[in-house]
Amino acid sequence: MSERRDIEIPIRELPINQLSPEDQELVAKAKEIVSGAYAPYSHFHVAAALRLESGRIVLGTNQENASYPLGLCAERTALFQSGALYPDDPVTSLVIVGAKEDGTVIKTCAPCGGCRQVMLEMADRHHHPFPVILAGPESALVVEDCRDLLPINFDATSL
Ligand code: THU
């Protein structure tokens, strides 16, 4: 006998100007730096902006390499930087922005599976889940808890 269980992920869509002022600042910073991504191979630019509990902002863009698999996503660039520089300062919010090479911001840039796994570990490490905001030109999708982006996951308790 099998029992079906459904997983619900709360997501909200709202105009950027209805985000908190702190999150709007992250969106603005991500849009400011997205064109500086190093993406000569995919021509797809991504920026991540995260806020820490202290109020500090940490930014990242995707960093590609001629040896393709060595490139790193914007989210992990920012998350690892925050882990390295401010190891005891929990992440409280993460914004992701994607743009074409001509600078046009796309509607939704969803994080890859690898970055979802790293977000999960960051939330667990600080016992502090954080929202992920996928910001487009005018509106954003908000996932309240980054852990919801990776259901049935592998974490330290799996080892
Ligand atoms: N990329 C990111 O930086 N973050 C995402 O959420 C999706 C994909 C990057 C990786 C690669 O440099 C380029 O976008 C195309 O996959």
Q: Which terms summarize this structure?
A:
alpha+beta; 159 residues; 6 strands; binds tetrahydrodeoxyuridine
In words, what does this structure look like?
With 159 residues, this protein is of the alpha+beta class. It contains three helices and six strands. The chain has helices spanning 21-33, 74-85, 113-125, and strands at 11-15, 44-52, 57-61, 91-100, 132-135, 139-143. It has a six-stranded mixed β-sheet with strand order 1-6-5-4-2-3, sandwiched between helices. Helix 3 links the parallel strand 4 and strand 5. The mean pLDDT is 97. The chain binds tetrahydrodeoxyuridine. Residues 39, 42, 44, 46, 62, 64, 71, 73-75, 96, 109, 111-112, 115 line the site of tetrahydrodeoxyuridine.
First and last CA, distance: 29 Å
Oligomerization state of this entry?
A: single chain
State the order of secondary-structure elements, H for helix, E for strand. EHEEHEHEE
Structural class: alpha+beta
- Count of individual beta strands: 6
Number of H- or I-type helical stretches: 3
Describe the largest sheet.
6 strands, mixed
Computed CA radius of gyration, to the nearest angstrom: 16 Å
Going across the biggest sheet, name each strand in turn. 1-6-5-4-2-3
If you average the pLDDT, what whole number results? 97
